[in-house]
Amino acid sequence: MTATARAFDPTSAEVPTPTGPSVRRLTLSGFRNYEALRLDLDRAPVVLTGPNGAGKTNLLEALSFLAPGRGLRRARLADIDRLDSDRVTGETQKTWAISAEVEGNMGRTIIGTGRDPLAAETGGDKRLVRIDGSPAKSQTVLGDHLAISWLTPQMDRLFTEGAGQRRRFLDRLVYAFDSQHAGRMNSYTHALRERGRLLRQGRSDASWHAALEEQIATSGVAVAAARRELIRGLMPLARAGSGPFPGAVLSIEGEVEAWLDEGPALDAEDKFRTALAGARSLATGEPTPVPGPHRSDLRVRHSIKDMPAEQCSTGEQKALLIAIILAHARLRTRNLGGAPLLLLDEVAAHLDSERRAALYDILDTLGSQAWLTGTDTALFDAIRPRAQCFTVQDGALVRQ
């Protein structure tokens, strides 16, 4: 948890006055199709409309880099750089940068992030982060200042594709409550990767393996425990649904999670270490698959139909996703005093007029800033009087 956040108590009945985050100023430089952009904003919802390819999703992607991780597209940093045309030498690459003045967990803060131009000169992909002008040791510090949730059209396949996407979705929800979760995930995946490298190289130093397996066990159990805690808190709100959005029954499947169901975390760590030691396969030079949170899966069921989400219709799956995001926002408001910043890309296009109006009304109650995009301005008629509306065209914005 952050130093300023209250303890995560899923059973709390207290409902604080919503004081969710908002972006008050956003500046982009060299970010995809934006050569330069500055937006000054208030706390109201932000609506971005314009044709496909105009840069609406690019703007949401820029906002997603104000949180730890690889952004909503999970793109390589170099792929985000803007390509400018040079009459003499052809195309030149301009490294991207973002600056945002935000109202977040720690009050007003200026967050700066972007691709390191010095590393870019040698083909490197390093991301820099500054908080109020001072360099940050790691991008994980961003979670101390801002919680962000998003829905994109690519997430429409969340319930039908592999478990990896569902794990990333769940971890993003955990970040909003526990800013250290990203650091534990990095520690776990790094140690797991290093262990695999040693096994492939046939290096049999028991002390090296024991040290890595200790790191894997302790960080892996912590990751699994954080996910379980989030699901435990989210379940009552998700099951209840949100207005016309159906209830979702959530669970997480995994061997480490099962160990935690059976006993304390220390016992789970012991079982994990034993499994890791027993799975060494130095004779073949290839690591034997081991249990761990890298194999866990988020399961979702439609509460009314009692049907797995992957068997529901496309429209029902979209409604379930929205219901989970809204339940998560309510949980954070109840326990930490504010919902995450919400980035909703092309969500309105898949909803009928009743559900659109209900969604806009629910967003009003959350107290955090929401960013919505779409190609059809009529889809936002119900929220337009209470929103900041912009037309996006070729990397430029015009206030409506």
What does this structure look like?
The protein is of the alpha+beta class. It has 10 helices and 17 strands. A hairpin with a 2-residue loop joins strand 1 and strand 2. The radius of gyration is 22 Å and the shape is globular. 42% of the residues are buried. Residues 1-18 have low confidence and may be disordered.
Offer a quick outline of the entry.
36% of the residues lie in helices and 23% in strands.
Topology, element by element:
Elements: E1 22-31, E2 34-40, E3 46-49, H1 56-64, H2 77-80, E4 82-86, E5 90-94, E6 97-104, E7 107-115, H3 117-121, E8 127-131, E9 134-135, E10 148-151, H4 163-175, H5 181-200, H6 206-240, E11 248-253, H7 255-262, H8 265-278, E12 297-302, E13 307-308, H9 314-336, E14 341-345, H10 353-366, E15 370-374, E16 388-393, E17 396-399
Parallel strand pairs: 3-15, 3-16, 10-14, 14-15
Antiparallel strand pairs: 1-2, 1-6, 4-5, 6-7, 7-8, 8-9, 11-12, 12-13, 16-17
Helix pairs in contact: 5-6, 6-8, 6-9
Poorly predicted regions are 1-18
The gross shape turns out to be globular
* Strand content bin: 15-25%
Overall average pLDDT: 90
Notable features of this structure?
400 residues; alpha+beta; six-stranded mixed β-sheet; 10 helices; disordered N terminus
